[in-house]
Design goal:
Radius of gyration: 25 Å
Keywords: Cell outer membrane, Membrane, Signal
Subcellular location: Cell outer membrane
Main location: membrane
Helix content: 25-40%
Pfam families: SusD-like_3 (PF14322), SusD_RagB (PF07980)
Number of strands: 10
Structural class: mainly alpha
Protein name: RagB/SusD family nutrient uptake outer membrane protein
């Protein structure tokens, strides 16, 4: 902290080169100037603002996002930093946390100091403070523009604090930068009580929202910048997080105090936090403007597409078709890891060992999260043969657009909801795209003995399930690979609907209004509503009628709807449910066996390790030595 906060005012200014209208926020700074020249005119000040945005854009790398790497939705089958042939440089740090490798000496995903795939968010906050302290200087900057830029910097500053709170709980609040002549005592900042931290973030957002444009009108020049709609949605998420069990009267952290003996965690549950969150969600929904469910946008060359395939591509396209109406907040950097999520569905892809790695492996447990075709959990559906789900069955006419007809696959892959087939791929599943746009004669995954088979012990899928959602149908891998790149969405309209439903249930309990918002999400996926589905098909037909039962339904609905989007890890933490998910060892199929019977044998893929202490991240031991006013995260 001493290194972070005791800074010289004449700091380096990042000057950005604008390579394209969509990437202007992503450019790495390559020049320096004095602070005086940084705010000499409006152009220089804007360049400094884009420097504040740079850290935000870097958060779009899913390997940096605990919501993705520590969710249990996807595992990485080996330590990447040990595989120099793959160009590894610690990129698996987040995945290693669920292996039990987190530590306080050199923390993984260290966002306090900027190590091990983390980013130094204190430096990012400092840049925002410098901008806010100097944005009044440029003489040619119109007042309306100054207000907007100030609001953007306040949003960024709020969001960086929020990210730190989700990771570390109580943190120091850095509202202004310390002067260069600050005393040692001033530099040794203290953590503030948790609710003070959340309230500070909300205060900054409230200050920013009135001066942000409701939506970004000039997409060619300003795509990726913050709007009032984004800020309102983020405020809703912040308050839902504050109201959730990890942060709202959590007895596990009740004894946590700072060096002055001040309690850092709220001692008692406060229902009014859910009421604040409910109001914020309602305000966000009232201001989503033109946001609407995604309408499929197709590229040329399609030979045949059934209504079934069209639905699957619509479900997937809402995430991978950038800047569509369903995406409330999208970050500019493009997802560069499609080859990690894709199987080898063609001989050409299999012939180029470097084209497809397939290492993002989906555990069988995650695949079983998705509903049956009746819209209820597979272990609750009275018509689903749950006990025999690992037996084998041949693809039939009813599943011809999901599973290759006549191909033998696991019985649990049949009779599932559309989101399962849109989001997850498996042995025998149809893969529309990758150069073949005819779903009457599509590509499919032959993991047992075809091009999907792992060529070595490095470039393979460890479970036999792929995160299909992350690979657009236009992407083709082979001797010459062509990726349909897309920018990473941070928040979707359906996710906001489910946050609102969650708040409604926590405040008012089950009722028609809650069902309405959940059912809007389900209708998009082609499912009947909650009441109809549970009443008709569930072995627990009244589950939706209690607050606890409906809470479980909402949580599962949200995990399905936002699967592989970098949300589940955050949600499971705030719900205090991640320990339950990661208490089960990761299982998959025997992927190196070349016979059908041998392949379909369950095997242990990876042991996971997660305890109460892993809900919040440790501060590096060295930081506690340099700043004795800090206290280590409880249990570390």
């Amino acid at each position: 902290m001493q290194t972070i906060l005791k800074i010289f005012t004449g700091t380096a200014l990042f000057i950005f080169l604008f390579s394209s209208c969509k990437k202007y926020l992503d450019v790495v700074p390559d020049d320096v100037a004095t602070l005086e020249s940084a705010f000499a005119n409006a152009n220089e000040a804007q360049a400094y603002l884009f420097g504040c945005y740079a850290t935000l854009q870097n958060l779009a790398d899913v390997r940096r996002n605990p919501g993705f790497t520590t969710s249990g939705e996807v595992i990485f089958p080996y330590p990447l930093q040990d595989q120099t042939t793959l160009g590894g440089s610690g990129g698996d740090a987040g995945f290693s946390i669920i292996r039990g490798l987190q530590n306080s000496a050199n923390p993984l995903l260290n966002y306090w100091d900027g190590y091990n795939m983390g980013l130094n968010l204190w430096q990012a906050i400092r840049k925002c403070n410098i901008f806010l302290e100097n944005v009044h200087i440029p003489p040619d900057l119109p007042d309306y523009q100054r207000k907007r830029w100030t609001a953007e910097a306040k949003f960024l500053k709020a969001y960086f604090h929020y990210w730190l709170i989700r990771m570390y709980g109580p943190i120091p609040i850095v509202d202004v930068n310390l002067p260069v002549n600050a005393s040692i005592d001033e530099v040794r900042v203290k953590q503030q009580p948790l609710d003070s931290c959340f309230n500070y973030v909300v205060k900054l957002l409230d200050e920013a929202i009135p001066d942000l444009p409701p939506v970004i009108q000039n997409l060619a020049a300003e795509q990726g910048r913050i709007s009032g709609t984004i800020a309102l949605a983020v405020k809703a998420e912040v308050l839902v997080t504050q109201a959730s069990p990890l942060f709202n009267g959590n007895p596990d952290y009740a004894s946590w105090k700072n060096r002055d003996g001040v309690s850092l965690y709220p001692a008692a549950y406060d229902e009014s936090k859910w009421q604040r969150a409910l109001a914020a969600c309602k305000a966000a929904l009232d201001n989503v403007g033109s946001a609407a469910l995604y309408q499929l946008r197709l590229s040329g060359g399609i030979v045949h597409m059934s209504d079934t395939t069209r639905r699957l591509l619509t479900i997937q396209g809402a995430f991978v078709d950038s800047w569509n109406s369903e995406q409330i907040w999208t970050l500019n950097p493009q997802f560069g890891w499609q080859y990690m999520a894709s199987p080898r569905v063609t001989a050409e892809a299999a012939s180029n060992v470097f084209a497809v790695y397939s290492n993002f492996s989906v555990p069988i447990g995650q695949s079983e999260l998705f509903y049956s075709n009746h819209g209820v959990p597979i272990n609750e559906d009275r018509t689903f043969d749950y006990n025999n789900r690992y037996k084998l069955q041949a693809g039939d006419d009813a599943h011809a657009y999901y599973i290759k007809k006549g191909y033998t696959s696991a019985k649990g892959n049949f009779n599932r909801e559309p989101r399962y087939y849109a989001d997850v791929a498996f042995d025998g599943s149809v893969w529309f795209g990758s150069g073949n746009l005819d779903d009457n004669n599509p590509n499919y995954i032959n993991a047992v003995n075809g091009p999907a088979a792992p060529p070595d012990q490095l470039r393979y899928n460890a479970t036999g399930y792929w995160a299909k959602k992350l690979v657009p149908y236009q992407t083709t891998f082979g001797q010459t690979s062509v990726q349909q790149n897309y920018s990473w969405p941070f928040m979707q309209l359906t996710g906001l609907w489910l946050l609102y439903a969650e708040c409604l249930n926590e405040v008012n309990g089950p009722g028609a209004e809650v069902y309405e918002w959940i059912d809007k999400v389900r209708a998009k996926a082609g499912l009947d509503g909650v009441v109809a589905s549970w009443s008709q098909y569930s072995i627990n037909p009244a589950k939706y009628s209690s607050k606890e039962g409906l809470r479980a339904i909402i949580h599962q609905e949200r995990r399905i709807e936002t699967a592989f989007e970098g949300q589940a890890g955050w949600d499971l933490r705030r719900w205090k449910e991640l320990q339950n998910v990661l208490s089960t060892p990761v299982q998959g199929w025997n992927v190196f066996n070349r016979t059908t019977e041998g392949y379909y044998q369950l095997r242990l893929v990876q042991q996971t390790s997660f305890s109460i202490r892993n809900y919040l991240y440790p501060i590096q031991d060295f930081d506690l030595l340099t700043n004795p006013n800090l206290v280590q995260t409880l249990y570390w």
